[in-house]
């Protein structure tokens, strides 16, 4: 779309309304508790009044049977308790606490209920008249009645009910059984059964009230959803109505334009003269687009002059006159040279321009013009103009272009009818303007004519080919000549032939790819000839080649990704097996009975298992599937820490030169993986210098802008980075090797001298850490690898000191091992039991939850595999934390997939141990987690 034109086909934006969030059980729970507390405090007044009134009744009836001082003291305590609970109720309603404070207020109420229960329990046990069965029955009746009232008033919150009911009824039951005798024992049994019945009643009432509260909040949420959905539908309805209205108006405008074009086309096909056709067309265009001026400017013989051959709104003296292009519209030249519409949006913006003379005389502000192309050249310009600033739409531009096209066709038809004898010349003009070579050939293969494109494509002028046989001109290879002869014979015999793709030889001897379309035609005199259209297919061939190369690269990338996925899957099972092997070998090695050759063989097997574990880690690293444990660290400190190891790695013939940056070089990365990156790059530099030399290791802090990132072809954003460069003066690499250097299993070393995973591993670690690695090299001039890691201003985190001092001093600790692989599960249990731990095992998450729910003793630590069928390790951890809030979790895995972290990095606070591991690593990690506060 040309600049300044409004695209009417754009979709109108509709602002979406996010659906109302649903309320789940975790959100309803505090609301239900709040409603329980409100109900308790709302019903507390009649309960308190019943407490005090019943206390007065009991005191009055026992006045002559119990020491009056005891009765007065008990009544005073009961009154104080009732007053205190009334004040608590007043305090609650004065503060109107929210759901988040409900449990605290519920505990206050439970404490008050417990005090009331103690008062009535005191009555049932102490204010018990020995020997008077009637008074005893009275006390039992009053306390039982108070318990029945509590079942209705306090059942909405069972802790409050039990706090009151147990403390009030239990002393009475105890006193009845202590009295002895058949009557008292019977009364005790009856009161016990009565108490159990009240407990069941209270429990059923509590369930009913909780269900009612939850149902109320669910209904409220449902109403909110319905209201929200209704609002969204109303909004969608209004938006749709608005869009329908706008689209209807747009369709009406398009219909009006289509009708105008139909009328223009009808007149173009009619018998109108050309001037009448141009006049009526400009009137239709002006009326349809709602402009005050429209015109057709015809290009004159002088290319700088145009004539106003038809128009609407112009002064009479301008009609039929010729004007210089710059006097009419300086952009008319652009219109004639462009295939796109040309827009003058606001003529006042060109106040300093001395052109636009005619337009300024008519107070024109905006205009839109398109070229009219007739035959092999422009006929002129069709333009519309407005006295007000106006932005023409894309549909209006298309309408004007189609109208110009119809006018052009009318002009061509008029010219053809006026000069029928020049029809062959008009056809020749069409042939001359074609970018493709057009040949007419006799059925015997003699060239009758060719167009000028022959010179551009084949290097021959049309006259050089005319009258010559295709066999005599060196246009085709030997195979091409056979194909042409066969195709010509087939055409002459009446067969339909598909397009040909072959090579043709230019005059300079260069072969080009072409596409040939040929057909057999008949002249008016009945003679037959072949028309061949030859199109240059070189660009298409090159595009197909590029596409094939891109598809090859895509397949290569897909193969690498498949290897990565395969490596991750293999790592999971392989690391489980290595864990079992390393654990059992370590136990065997620790056995004093294993000596001599057997111990040596066990050691060799253990070393082979460690090497296999290292290979697995490399596979995970290049596929970016290993789990990182990043933290803030100083790159300079990491380099200094491995300097001694690097010196030993390089040997005596290679000198290591380290240049540490003066500014801060802190990054967030896995320290072990960063050390591996440095070691791999230095080792690569060593291998590139078999005769010795110098490896230079540099660190610095740099800022990369967008231009630098493009030059480096790095897939990172602009910002501050810490650069780690390793350069050597070795044999270097050619460009093909440099492009393949990070591919897995690619190596320039001989057989049995490397896996080809070193640099692939390095690349995977760097990319997974959010950085990039680039390499520059030339044959014989050495190589330079530069790693860019995002800089962070945070302070480096100190290493946590190991808390493992004595692997056998573990105390009485219980560990739950959750592992779906039987051998790994048995190995872990054996190692932990040898270290003194009490070990529970589960083969999946469901079994672990069952053990945690039923186990009465404390479980100090859960060791869980990350990838397990049905329930992953993180999911199990969340379920266990709900059962045992303070339980500690240690994840172990050889391959976590996306279960532990989407980024591949272990988040802070997550305890993780990579498989495979030896027993001492497992015990050390277990004690580190257990000892950490």
Polypeptide structure, described:
The strands form 5 sheets. A 6-stranded antiparallel β-sheet has the order 3-2-1-6-5-4. It has a 5-stranded antiparallel β-sheet with strand order 8-7-11-10-9, with helices on both faces. Helix content is 53%, strand content 16%. Helix 3 runs antiparallel to helix 4 and helix 6 runs antiparallel to helix 7. It has 933 residues and is an alpha+beta fold. It has 27 helices and 23 strands.
Low-confidence stretches: 10-15, 801-809
Report the average pLDDT across residues. Answer: 77
How can the largest sheet be summarized?
6 strands, antiparallel
Query: What form results from the Cα inertia axes?
Result: extended
- Classify the secondary structure makeup into a structural class: alpha+beta
Helix content: 40-55%
Number of beta-strand segments: 23
Tally the helices: 27
N- and C-termini, Cα separation: 66 Å
Q: Give the strand order, joined by hyphens, for the main sheet.
A: 3-2-1-6-5-4
| Radius of gyration, CA atoms, in whole angstroms | 47 Å
Strand content: 15-25%
């Amino acid at each position: 779309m040309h600049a300044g034109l409004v695209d009417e086909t754009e979709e109108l934006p509709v602002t979406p309304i996010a659906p109302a969030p649903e309320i789940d059980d975790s959100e309803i729970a505090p609301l239900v508790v709040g409603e329980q507390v409100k109900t308790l405090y709302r019903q507390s007044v009649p309960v308190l009044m019943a407490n005090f009134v019943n206390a007065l009744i009991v005191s009055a009836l026992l006045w002559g049977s119990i020491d009056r001082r005891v009765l007065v003291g008990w009544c005073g305590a009961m009154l104080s308790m009732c007053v205190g609970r009334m004040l608590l109720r007043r305090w609650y309603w004065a503060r109107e606490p929210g759901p988040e404070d409900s449990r605290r207020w519920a505990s206050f109420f439970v404490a008050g209920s417990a005090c009331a229960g103690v008062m009535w329990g005191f009555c049932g046990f102490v204010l018990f008249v020995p020997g008077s069965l009637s008074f005893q029955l009275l006390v039992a009746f009053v306390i039982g009645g108070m318990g029945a009232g509590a079942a209705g008033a306090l059942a909405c919150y069972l802790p409050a009910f039990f706090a009151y009911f147990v403390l009030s009824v239990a002393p009475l039951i105890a006193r009845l059984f202590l009295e002895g005798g058949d009557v008292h024992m019977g009364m005790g049994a009856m009161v016990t059964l009565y108490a159990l019945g009240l407990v069941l009643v209270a429990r059923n009432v509590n369930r009913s009230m909780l269900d009612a509260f939850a149902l109320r909040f669910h209904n409220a949420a449902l109403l909110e959803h319905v209201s929200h959905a209704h609002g969204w539908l109303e909004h969608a309805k209004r938006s749709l109505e608005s869009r329908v209205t706008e689209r209807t108006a747009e369709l009406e405008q398009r219909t009006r334009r289509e009708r105008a074009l139909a009328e223009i086309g009808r007149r173009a096909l009619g018998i109108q003269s050309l001037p009448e056709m141009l006049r009526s067309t400009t009137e239709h265009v002006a009326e349809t687009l709602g402009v005050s001026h429209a015109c057709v400017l015809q290009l004159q013989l002088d290319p700088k002059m145009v004539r106003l051959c038809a128009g609407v709104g112009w002064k009479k003296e301008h009609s039929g006159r010729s004007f210089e292009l710059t006097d009419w519209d300086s952009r008319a030249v652009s219109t004639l040279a462009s295939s796109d519409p040309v827009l003058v949006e606001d003529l006042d913006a060109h106040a300093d321009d001395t052109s636009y003379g005619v337009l300024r005389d008519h107070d024109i502000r905006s205009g839109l013009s398109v070229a009219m192309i007739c035959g092999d050249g422009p006929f002129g310009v069709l333009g519309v103009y407005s006295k007000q600033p106006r932005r023409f739409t894309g549909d209006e531009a298309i309408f004007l272009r189609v109208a110009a096209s119809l006018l052009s066709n009318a002009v061509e038809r008029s010219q053809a009818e006026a000069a029928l004898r020049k029809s062959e010349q008009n056809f020749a003009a069409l042939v001359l303007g074609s970018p493709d070579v057009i040949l007419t050939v006799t059925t015997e293969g003699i060239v009758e004519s060719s167009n000028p494109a022959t010179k551009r494509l084949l290097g021959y002028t049309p006259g050089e080919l005319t009258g010559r046989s295709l066999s005599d001109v060196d246009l085709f290879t030997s195979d091409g000549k056979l194909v042409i002869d066969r195709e010509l014979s087939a055409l002459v015999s009446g067969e339909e032939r598909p397009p040909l793709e072959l090579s043709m030889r230019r005059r300079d001897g260069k072969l080009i790819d072409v596409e040939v379309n040929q057909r057999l035609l008949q002249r008016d005199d009945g003679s037959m000839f072949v028309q061949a259209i030859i199109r240059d297919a070189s660009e298409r061939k090159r595009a197909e080649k590029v596409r094939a190369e891109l598809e090859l690269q895509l397949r290569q990338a897909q193969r690498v990704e498949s290897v990565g996925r395969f490596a991750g899957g293999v790592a999971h099972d392989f690391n489980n097996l290595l864990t079992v092997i390393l654990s059992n070998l370590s136990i065997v090695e620790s056995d004093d009975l294993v000596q001599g050759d057997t111990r040596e063989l066990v050691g060799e097997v253990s070393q082979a298992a460690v090497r296999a574990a290292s290979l697995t880690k490399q596979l995970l690293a290049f596929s970016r599937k290993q789990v990182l444990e990043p933290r803030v660290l100083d790159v300079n400190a990491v380099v200094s820490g491995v300097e001694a190891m690097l010196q030993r790695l390089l040997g005596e013939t290679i000198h290591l030169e380290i240049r540490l940056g003066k500014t801060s070089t802190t990054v967030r990365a896995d320290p072990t993986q960063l050390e591996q990156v440095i070691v791999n790059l230095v080792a690569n530099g060593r291998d590139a210098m078999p005769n010795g030399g110098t490896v230079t290791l540099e660190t610095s802090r740099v800022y990369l802008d967008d231009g630098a990132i493009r030059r480096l072809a790095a897939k990172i954003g602009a910002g501050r980075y810490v650069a780690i460069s390793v350069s050597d003066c070795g044999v270097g690499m050619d460009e093909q090797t440099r492009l393949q250097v990070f591919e897995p299993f690619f190596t320039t070393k001989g057989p049995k001298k490397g896996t080809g995973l070193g640099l692939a591993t390095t690349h995977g670690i760097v990319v997974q850490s959010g950085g990039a690695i680039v390499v520059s090299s030339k044959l014989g001039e050495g190589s330079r690898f530069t790693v860019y890691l995002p800089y962070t201003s945070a302070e480096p985190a100190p290493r946590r000191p190991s808390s493992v001092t004595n692997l056998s001093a573990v105390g009485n600790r219980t560990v739950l091992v959750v592992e779906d692989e039987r051998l790994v599960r048995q190995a872990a249990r054996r190692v932990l039991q040898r270290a003194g731990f009490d070990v529970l095992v589960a083969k999946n998450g469901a079994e672990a939850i069952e053990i945690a729910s039923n186990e009465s003793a404390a479980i100090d630590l859960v060791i869980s595999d990350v990838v397990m069928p049905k329930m992953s390790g993180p999911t199990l951890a969340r379920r266990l934390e709900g059962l045992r809030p303070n339980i500690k979790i240690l994840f172990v895995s050889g391959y976590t997939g996306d279960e532990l972290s989407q980024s591949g990095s272990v988040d802070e606070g997550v305890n993780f141990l990579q498989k495979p591991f030896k027993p001492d690593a497992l015990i050390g990690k277990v004690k580190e987690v257990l000892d950490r506060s």
